[in-house]
Amino acid sequence: MSERLLKSVIPTHRVKEGGGFWVRRPAAMGSLMSPFLLLDEMGPANYGPGEAVGAPWHPHRGFETVTYMLSGKMQHEDSAGNHGDLTPGDVQWMTAGRGIIHSEEPHEDFQKTGGLMHGFQIWVNLPAKDKMMEPRYQEIPSSQSPTIEKNGVWARVVAGQCMGVDSQIDTVIPITYIHLKMSPGSSLIQPINLGLNCMLYLFNGSVEISGKGVKDGNLALLDDGSEINLVSQEGCELLILAGPEINEPIARYGPFVMNTRDEIIQAIDDYNNGTLA
């Protein structure tokens, strides 16, 4: 077995998204994170009644969005008539494929009371052969989202496998997405297949990766290897993300991620003439 060592650490910065909500986002994105196009930590933010904002109607084509709620309550709907709620622990894995138009807004119940809103949205690229696949949703409520706790380490397995527990998400490409909470003094050895890109996002406390420390608000990029050796002296909370390199050109314009400029122009034309979704 070979340990994955820390290759580089990327800090985050705060930016406004959607209707004006704050997110924490790694300062460098793109090919460094392939196949992940974006990693946004939404909040944590405390809202008073009627103050919370979301992402009004907008289109997507050519990739997947993964929304994972930690606190608060959101509601979504789309151009195909789908709708539902997202509460703490829920996961929505939306494959936009050839195109979908949707909205994600604070739930009306949350708007009445206000409270803490916290979660993640991650964009996963699709290979060229899958960019125009039929759109689909996989919505996993908290009660069906697999979790496990051993030796001071708690994990929710959004995608992939951890401590003998497997996710039920069907991913287009092999993806690992694990939420970890590590108690002070705990450790974990997490297998990751050789050849996959792998990164950790710390959003509470600090962790040592093969002896090198990473703190809250940083994205750690790891080199190749078959396992990650994690130790947390003071306790921490983090995401593990891994997936294959998609060695294809990326043409990106707002909510569209394709391979060529012509495909982007076509996506814009389809959206404008009502044939995107």
What can be said about this structure in brief?
Helices cover 7% and strands 55% of the residues. The chain is mainly β. The strands form 4 sheets. The chain has a 16-stranded antiparallel sheet that branches.
Q: Kindly provide the radius of gyration, computed on alpha-carbon positions and rounded to a whole number of angstroms.
A: 18 Å
Residue windows where pLDDT falls under 50 for at least 5 positions: none
CATH class type? Mainly Beta
What is the CATH topology classification name? Jelly Rolls
What name goes with the CATH superfamily?
A: Jelly Rolls
Count of helical regions: 2
> For the report, how would you describe the main beta sheet?
16 strands, antiparallel
Q: Level of helix content?
A: under 10%
Structural class: mainly beta
User: How many distinct domains?
Assistant: 1
Mean pLDDT: 92
Number of strands: 24
Distance between the first and last residues' Cα: 46 Å
Written overview of the protein:
With 277 residues, the protein is mainly beta. The chain has a single domain (6-273), classed as Jelly Rolls (Sandwich), CATH 2.60.120.10. It is 7% helix and 55% strand. It contains two helices and 24 strands. The strands form four sheets. It has a 16-stranded antiparallel sheet that branches. Strands 4-9-6-7 form a four-stranded antiparallel sheet. The protein has a two-stranded antiparallel ribbon with strand order 14-15. The chain is globular, with a radius of gyration of 18 Å. The mean pLDDT is 92.
